[in-house]
Amino acid sequence: MADESRVVAASREVAAPAETIFELIADPAQQPRWDGNDNLAEADAGQRVTGVGDVFTMGLTIDAKRDNHVVEFEEGRLIAWRPSEPGAEPPGHLWRWQLEPIDAQRTRVTHTYDWSELSDENRMERARATTSERLRASIDRLAGLAEGG
Q1: Got the DSSP string for 18-72?
Q2: The pTM is what?
Q3: What's the domain count of the chain?
């Protein structure tokens, strides 16, 4: 399988300011509220991401924990992380959120799942199941929260 097929993305316009949307993404405690994969169960409060190098811990619905290593960050615009089992090196997949303000009240939101560097065969089936429709579900849920619904 070519690497190009290992990058999945979805995008849409959200009727909310980029700052409002970004707060819902950069605060891990908020992420289970909008997760379209129904994979995230909980995260402790007080882990708000502030830059590259931050690590936040998330509880999954499969009763496991993940450390998420922030590898890209621009306040209010971009955040990306590589998940791993606690204390382990990330196995090679990345979740990215990009926010592009259209105007003061509208933002283009793009969510990307990149598993082009994933080499762990045990994770391949789940990676393949992460479709643009699932990414779009996360954006749609996020939009509902950010737009005040």
Answers
A1: HHHHHHHHH-GGGHHHH-TTS-EEE--SS----STT-EEEEEETTS-EEEEEEEE
A2: 0.91
A3: 1
